[in-house]
Each structure stands twice: as structure tokens, then as C-alpha cells.
Give the backbone structure.
Amino acid sequence: MYRILKKEDLNPSVCYLEISSPQIAKAAQPGQFIILRITEKGERIPLTIHGFDEPEDTISIIVQKAGKTTDQLCSLNAGDGLLDLAGPLGKPSLAVKEKRVLFIAGGVGAAEAYPIARAIKQERGEVAVILGAKSAEDLILEKQLRALTSKVYVSTDDGSYGRKGFVTDLLSEILLKDKSFDLIYAIGPLAMMAAVSNLSRHYKVKTLVSLNSIMLDGTGMCGSCRVTVGNETKFACVDGPEFDGHLVDFDELMKRQARFKKKECRSRKLAGKK
Amino acid sequence: MKEQNPQERINNFNEVALGYTPEQAILEAKRCLGCKNAGCIQGCPVEIDIPGFIAEIKKGSFDKAYQVLKEKNNLPAVCGRVCPQETQCEKACVLAKKGKPIAVGSLERFVADWAISHGVSERPEQKFKELERNTQYAIGNTKKIAIIGSGPAGLTAAADLAKTGYQVIIFESLHAVGGVLRYGIPEFRLPKEIVDTEVGYIEKLGVKMEVNAVIGRIKTIDQLRVEGFKAFFIATGAGLPYFLGIKGENLNGVYSANEFLTRVNLMNAYRFPDYDTPVNIGRKVAVIGAGNVALDSARVSRRLGAGEVTIVYRRSESEMPARFEEIKHAREEGIKFELLTSPIKIYGYENGWVRAMRCLRNRLAEPDASGRRRPVAIPDSEFDFDCDLVVVAVGQGPNPLLLSTIPELKLNKRGNIEADPEGRTSVPDIFAGGDIVTGAATVIEAMGMGKRAARAIDNYLTKLINC
Ligand SMILES: Cc1cc2nc3c(=O)[nH]c(=O)nc-3n(C[C@H](O)[C@H](O)[C@H](O)COP(=O)(O)OP(=O)(O)OC[C@H]3O[C@@H](n4cnc5c(N)ncnc54)[C@H](O)[C@@H]3O)c2cc1C
Ligand SMILES: Cc1cc2nc3c(=O)[nH]c(=O)nc-3n(C[C@H](O)[C@H](O)[C@H](O)COP(=O)(O)OP(=O)(O)OC[C@H]3O[C@@H](n4cnc5c(N)ncnc54)[C@H](O)[C@@H]3O)c2cc1C
Ligand code: SF4
Ligand code: FES
């Protein structure tokens, strides 16, 4: 049993959890994830490790309610436990080695961008961040990111905060003015990462994306998470989750993400949600 | 042996074979000649005293029969169900020449099941109790051994080492132990309760099991050395699914057998929505391959409600690697066989779902390296095969996750660990066995290697302490 030490709702659909797990906290690096299971009948789901050092023997995750298991996770509280927690999984982020990195984080993507951006700052690199969300209340971690860099740009789809529009609008403006980024790091919904990759290809800036393909074991055993990258089949859980955005077949991945849609909806409905 | 009726069993995941009654077991045991130079023992990779346990069955002393079995085999209820007896002990039985060898597998299963239902399997062995008392145990107990992987190889080595008196910890990356016995072989061939019971026995011997522990990620071998582990047994299995490398393999509805079976067996997707993990069911399912893994996938599909299930295999019936009994069971359950056929492309709809598979017909040429006749494509024999679900079951290889963190460990060309028959590798304190050494093989071979490695580890550590 892995105990939840702290729970906070960041907004109505996103929560923050601190979980006691000394071994994972010790081993984790930016860009890695865990796989958890809440109950005996539960699904194994992957979530990025958002924090792994404060306090020392805990890790934190930031969860967007997307279906039955994530709904359930956000309904837990401090004192509750998780049945299984495996990790750290995936390769540590390559971005931490770069000097000047522009992050583009959509929604809960900020949860993964933050530890990587912080690691780059600690290595004396420079970061800029474009934060995007549907609406003002969906933005997370803005304050924390502003503490890392003065270059935080915000856009919301409905214009309720920051610029109205998509992150790609801000991105093309920035890329027109500033050509000095070593790397663009995009993390968020698939459609967003695809759009960013298309744009940055045009500007010839190297781009990493962190893929959220459907996983099962997370150790390269099942092949559920496979994606086509540069015409080769890769397993996102062990070869990634980070890949060169210019080489990812996003069209295929988006179709693959819908493999269990009907059953997922049924599961969520049965659990008492819309 | 009594079996569940095929029409009924395709609607449930309950066991197919129902086992002997005591009367049947005694009757079968009485046919055994109790040979002096018993061929059956030589045919058994873990050297069970077969005439010995059968003699006890004859007398009706099932408890004693169980003790004899357990002497060599830590997982008899598993082996009695899944071993390819027809190519091992039963093939070597003198009565095989007359056409009807002793049903050693069925007898083994009977005794193990009897022990479970009578609570005998819960009792640690007499020998082990004595061990606890002697000093050797106290010395050995200070030595920690790490086993990585909890499949039949790891479990066997752990049990034998614990019986010798070592402190053994098994690290398993999944949330449940058993390896393929848990996530690969379906409930209707090997009930998970059986795996639980046999694992429970090994825990009673003092073996600790740490699940959710992906070695190579959470800890490296080096870190385990620092924590005081004196020897390692790597038994991580063949956990890398192979694909055919044909077009359309990433379409929705194309599974590796590993994904398909793990969803169903480990995650209980066949009980969705009571259990949360989903799996899709096809109307027309094609399973590519004809080994045990393929047959299991086909029979699982049938039970999930697939309308039509076909095994697509590139060679002919006599080359099929699956156990004879499983092929027979599959036929009874209405599984079709499209033999001498190779898929070359999978087609999909616009929305990314599988629609059909393009195949070629083969003929058989001279034998290849595997000793089986090689399939050769017949020109212009292309045809399309309608299907909406494809399970690729063409083999598994060594998973590199852990191995890539031990660069000093020698691997062969295929990426398997190089180890001698005793499990010794190029690194003195690292031993290895099971599918990670041999490539995908059998439960009993993995167990045999686990046993030999346990002995080699004991030798290695004894020498360490003596100098
Ligand atoms: C490496 C990685 C890191 C991730 N990090 C985060 C994170 O930090 N915060 C966060 O909120 N979400 C993260 N996700 C996504 C998260 O795993 C899914 O939202 C979650 O699995 C949905 O489960 P559910 O039962 O609530 O929803 P479901 O109803 O089962 O599914 C909702 C959607 O989630 C996706 N999904 C479903 N099952 C899985 C699965 N087993 N693996 C991956 N995706 C799945 C599908 O696209 C589906 O449409 C990450 C995914 C990956 C692969
Ligand atoms: C579907 C299927 C059906 C089969 N049917 C039969 C049959 O009828 N008869 C028969 O004799 N054989 C059968 N086999 C083959 C047999 O199951 C295998 O040969 C046997 O299980 C190999 O045992 P093992 O101990 O080497 O590895 P496995 O059983 O594969 O176990 C390896 C374990 O190691 C774990 N692991 C891997 N990497 C790590 C890591 N880095 N850290 C921690 N843990 C790790 C894995 O999660 C797994 O649990 C079948 C195989 C399959 C897949
Ligand atoms: S070879 Fe056959 S008959 Fe002889 S002891 Fe073994 S099982 Fe019995
Ligand atoms: S999740 Fe199974 S291989 Fe990646």
C-alpha cells in the first residue's frame, strides 16, 4: 500500500497528489513516469512524476480527470492508499542537456514540463514557457514557472486570461523574433504536439514531444504503446516517452488513442459520471 | 480424463480438463511397470522420481506421493497442467512403444490437486524444518540472494535456495508474481488459484517477494550489490513481443499476443466492466502463429465471444509447435486453421481499424535450421482474408530493459544472456536461466535451469565463505 500524504485540487478537473514512495523518489529523474493501480479491479495507468524530492521520500503527480481511473484518483484524499506503484519508468528527459529551451505546455502538460525546466535552470540553462489552456481556470503551475523564468507566455482558447487563441499563435510570433532556441519541448494534447511539430519543422528548430500512448505494463513487454517514429515502430514506454516531434506519425497515434473509447465511456458512466 | 464439454466451455474461463478421480488415478498408476532404469525419469528435465510417486499412488498414499513429487518439483500443480509430457516423460516411457504410455502428467496433476484440496501443500517439508534447526542454515541465512523475475525459473531457484538456507528476495516488475504463468497462460488452462497456492508455499519457505520492482529502473544490480546481495539470478523471461514487420501492423485491432493475453489474464479484461481494463473483441479474429501462445490467444478470443477465429500459420499441421492437447482442444472449440499461409499486409479502414489481411499461400521445401520444413511462397497465390481483429503470436525475444544496464554481461547474437548449463554467466556473481537464456521455451525447462542455477549459486557462495 502506498499512502497519499497530501492532496490538493488545482482546479475542478485537475488534482495534485503527494505519495509516499522512498525508492521511486530516490531513483526518479525528470521526464519519467510511474504506473499505478488504485484497487484490485483497477486499471494500470501511467502518470508523469511531477516531483520527487520534496520531501525526500515522496513523489508527486498531477492528474487530469479523463475517465474512470483518473476520476477515482482525484476523489482520494490524504490518508488513503494506492494498491500499486511501479516506477520510475521511461527514459529520463534528454532536454535537460540543452542550454536554451522553449517549452510549450498544454493543460496538465505543465506538470511534466516543470521538473524538466527546473533541471535545465539548475544546469544554468535558460528556459521560456508558453502555457496554454482552454480557459483561465484550467491553467496550472503558472506561479511556479514564473519563479523559474520571466519568459512565461499564456494563451487561453476562450481568451479568459492571457492571449486568446492557441499556443501555436504565440509560438510563431516568438520564433519570428527569436531564432536562438536549441530546442522546443512540447507536451500536452496530441493535436497540440502535432501542430507545434508542424510549425517548428518549418522553422527548423529541433523539437521533442512526450507521447502519452496507451500503456499496459510500461516495461516493453506488451507493445500496446507502439508508435511510428521515422517509419520505425517504437515502444513509447521504453524507447520514450520523449521522441523527435518531426518524426512522429501523429495521425496514426491519434487513431490508436481511440482504441478503447467505447469501453472507456461505458466504464466512466457506470462509475456514475457523464 | 474428464473434460468440460466444448459447447459449454467456449462460454466460460473455467478449466477445460477436470482431472482424475482417485479411482482413475489408482487404476492408471497400476499400469506402471516401476522400471529399474526408468526412461520416464530421463525424459524429465527436473528428474522427478516418477516410478516412485506412481508407486505411492498405487498404494493410495497420495500424501507420500506428493512428498516424492515435491522433492524435485516445486510447482507440480502447474507442471501437471502445462508440461508437454508427450515429448518428455511420456515419450520416454517404455509403454510408449506399445502405444499407450503412462499418463504421467495427469497423475502429477492429480497428486498436486489432491494435496491442495487436503491442505497438505500448506505444510512445509519435514526436511526444511530440520534445516531451520541446523547451524548451516544460520550461516547461510546471512547471505542475501536476489532473483529478478518471478516466472517458473525464478520461483524454482528461489525455493531451492531457501530450502538450502539462504535469504532470498524475488523482484518482479508487474504487480503480481508468476511470470507467464500469471499473465500469459489463460485461466482455463492454468487457474490463477493454482499459481497462488504454489507461490504461497514458496513464501512459506521464507522467500520474500517484492512486486512493482522494475530492476534496471528502480535499482541496478550495482545498487543491489551495495545493499548486500551476494549473488543474482536473472530470470526475466522472453518479454519482448516480435512483430512481422508488415504494413498495417499498428492499425487498431492488431495486438501482440502479449498485450492481448496480459489484458485478459493479468488484468481480468474478460470480466470487464467489473474489472476496469478493456479489451476489444472481434467478429472475425485472425491469430498469426501456431505455438502455445497463438493457441491460447485463439481460445481466449473464442471465449470473449468472437464469431470466427482462425489460426494463420505459414507451415503445415505437423510443424505446429503447440502442444498436441491444445491443438485438439482448439479444434473441438471450433477454431479454424488456415495453414501454409503467410500474411504480407494488413488493411485498414479510414478510421484506423483493421479490415482485412492480404496473404500468400506456401508450399514446404527442405528442412531449415530448426529441422522443420521451410515454407516457400507460391507465386501469384495472393488472397485477402477478412478480419477485424489480428493477434500477432510469432514469438518473443529478450527484453533489453535490465540487460542494457549491465554492459559487462555477455549476450549472444539474439540478445539472450550467455550462460552455461548451470546458469553461470560472464559475471561471477550473476547467474541466469529460463527464457532469457534459451529464448522462448517451456515451463519445465525454465524450472530445470532454476534448479541447476540454485545449486551453482550455492557452490559459488560456499566457496566465497570458505576462503
Ligand atoms: C507516459 C505518460 C505520462 C502521462 N502523464 C500524465 C500526467 O502527468 N497527468 C495526467 O493527467 N495524465 C497523464 N497521462 C495520461 C493518463 O495516463 C490517462 O489520462 C489515463 O490513463 C486515463 O485513464 P482513465 O481510466 O481515467 O481514462 P479512460 O477513460 O480509460 O481514458 C481516457 C483517455 O486516456 C487515454 N488512456 C486510457 N488508458 C490509458 C493508458 N493505460 N495509458 C495511457 N493513456 C491512456 C486514452 O487516450 C483515453 O482516450 C500520461 C500518459 C502517459 C502515457
Ligand atoms: C501464452 C503462453 C503460453 C505458454 N504455454 C506453455 C505451455 O503450455 N507449456 C509450457 O511448458 N510452456 C508454455 N509457455 C512457455 C513458458 O511459459 C515459458 O517458457 C516460461 O514461463 C519461462 O519462464 P521464465 O521464468 O524464464 O520467465 P517468465 O515466465 O517470462 O517470467 C519472467 C518474469 O520476469 C519479470 N521481469 C522481466 N524483467 C524484469 C525486470 N527488469 N525486473 C523485475 N522483473 C522483471 C517479468 O515481469 C516476468 O514476470 C507459454 C508461454 C506463453 C507466453
Ligand atoms: S517408463 Fe513408464 S512404465 Fe516405466 S516407470 Fe516410467 S512411467 Fe512407469
Ligand atoms: S506499455 Fe507494454 S510495451 Fe509499452
